[in-house]
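Intended use. Records like the one below are meant for learning the mapping from a protein sequence to its folded structure. Do not use them to infer anything beyond what is encoded.
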Amino acid sequence: MRNLDVAVLRAFVTVAETGSMTGAAEVLNLTQGAVSQQIKRLETAFGCGLFERARKGLRLTQNGEQLLRKAQRMLLLNDEIWQDMTGAGHVGKLTVGIPYDLVGTFMRTPLRKFCDHYPGIELSLRCHSSQELRSMVNSGEIDIALVEEPVGQMTGDFLKIAPLVWVGAKSGKAQTKRPLPVSLVSRECAFRPAVIDALDQAGIAWRSVFESGNIEATAATVRSDLSITAFLVGTIPDDLEPLGRDDALPELPKFAISLMEKTGAHNEVRDVFAKMVRTHFHQL
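Structure written out for the chain above:
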């Protein structure tokens, strides 16, 4: 009889879902070498390759795709059994607010860890501008939110300071045009006042190209070299690039990423999430 190691299956599923050994190692709190060794053990046991290298990371082979869905089901059942038999883990509901640009960057790993470690908690995600999220926390509509605020104007619990920089298409020319074509996610975007003030202070004429509330659509206009925009360092899409001093653009201020929590009764589920987020940002 052959027995599958659940820890090895968890490593396989995590690599498949993150697309890299490095990403899986971060989620699982292991070294990259340990994850790689677990995948090798699984491939040796089955006598076939499960991943192949692609331009943007690792891609499942046909055998890997065949294994993935059943491995996910097995892990889910394992975690349900563990929780049922031990009574371990928190249960409840949590509504979390995150700005568009932080979901797939700074918050990708802690969200994944939280869902993996606390399967009994039903997490709902709301993505809006920082201004909207701040109002939603204050009104009690959501339990906790990350917000982006100018340094010196923080209202939440400080997590990290990140520079705001100009971003354009690779080898683009939009930054040389006048009036300067600028795209921002929306009129409620936390960066909008800082961007406009910097341009006005520098005496640079500008025009709004696109404001839609959709960060992907905004990035698309920049990718097409129709405009430039502003991103926090650490959130810039791979196919765009920061613009430097040689582009004759004014310096932008630094922003803080903060954590805001709904006031009122103690919420143990919210505390668990907040602690995991703080730990993640402390390790960055």
